[in-house]
Amino acid sequence: MADRAANPQRKLSGVMRFVALAMAAALAACSTGPRIIPDAERPPVIEAPRPVAPRPIAPGLPQDIARHRVALLVPLTGPNAGVGTSLSNATQLAILDTKSDVLRITTYDTAPGAANAASQAIADGNTLILGPLLADDAREVAPIARRARVPVLSFSNDASVAGNGTYLLGYSPAQSIERVVEYAKTSGITQFAGLIPTGLYGERASTALLRSVEGTGGKVLAMETFDSRPGSMTNAVTKLGRVPYQAILIAGSGGSAVTAAPVIRRSPGGKTARILGTELWNTDSGIGGNAVLNGAWFASVPDNYYRQYATKYRARFGAAPYRMSTLGYDAVLLTIRIARDWRPGDAFPEGRLMEREGFAGLDGAFRFGGDGVAERALEVQEIRGGQTVTVSTAPQNFRGN
């Protein structure tokens, strides 16, 4: 039994030996063939970032290439700061009311020096100057702006500074005197007298009175000057009383007229005379409440829109505006109108200022003459019953083109 058991084990060991030899042969065959090693995955190519030169930080205002750069030159400090601030506020209100985004207005204080303010404004890239307020400042600014070919729209009313790129938006005393004299002529008045303040304004007012009266075929029978000294006004009126006249022009402020009127009424020549005033009266919001001036006439820009403007101004800035602040508002309206055909970055199209049909604003219609002075359509107002009443409306169109 032991032998029978030994035979199967021999057969199994033989098979195992055959399998082992076969596996060895297979391994030997594999070891002699080529070995294939897969390539490692290549990393992605990343370019190094190119260095960017930093932009230099330059002083001054940010560069705005989408809007027109406009400078506002007004006094923000000193004795005229109130007027200057009111003008500045008016330009802001005009931008808000028109919802315009074509202008960038930068304000420069002229109190430390108008010439320096103008130079800085031009260096900052402004291509139009609104202001300055005072005639002396306009004289300083004019040559600086002219060299840079930057037009100036000044708020002064001194015609001697106009021309050569400087335009005046201020209310001209000569125009207001001419307007009220012409209206007086329609009422049959031909004999005039003048009560004139000393100084440059008075000199120009007296010249305007003489020319206006002569132009209507009337006569100036007498003129006297007054100043701020006590008794000066009374003495001037007393001298005028020697000659009877139908109308007397008081070419001073509303306060001067209030002082002069009672004296005029007591004088022999002025008991029934019509009292006339200038555009200065319209700067006094309470002028209509002076009973001594009842029946007086004065010519000025229309007040149709001023009352609405004043209400909006008070609501926004918490104070009443100066009457002449409308010049700043209207200067912005004019600029926005011209900007329709004015590409940002180009020089201001100065020729557009001479459009004969003129421009419209809060103060009515106006246009620039060849001398650079704004010609205005004026109305005549009468002081009556504690208020001012328009007795002759401003003309709708300018005469002549």
List keywords for this structure.
401 residues, alpha/beta, Rossmann fold, 2 domains, seven-stranded mixed beta sheet, five-stranded parallel beta sheet, 37% helix
Shape: elongated
Output the radius of gyration.
43 Å
Q: Name the CATH homologous superfamily of the largest domain.
A: Response regulator
Count of β-strands: 15
Q: Could you give the order of strands across the largest sheet?
A: 7-6-8-9-10-14-15
Largest sheet: 7 strands, mixed
Architecture of the largest domain, CATH level 2?
3-Layer(aba) Sandwich
Query: Which CATH top level class of the largest domain fits?
Result: Alpha Beta
Distance between the termini: 150 Å
Helix content: 25-40%
| SSE arrangement, N to C | HEHEHEHEEHEHEHEHEEHHEEEEE
Segments where pLDDT lies below 50 for 5+ residues? 1-40
Work out the helix count.
Answer: 10
Specify the structural class.
Answer: alpha/beta
Number of domains: 2
Beta-strand level of the residues, as a percent range?
Answer: 15-25%
Mean pLDDT: 86
CATH topology of the largest domain: Rossmann fold
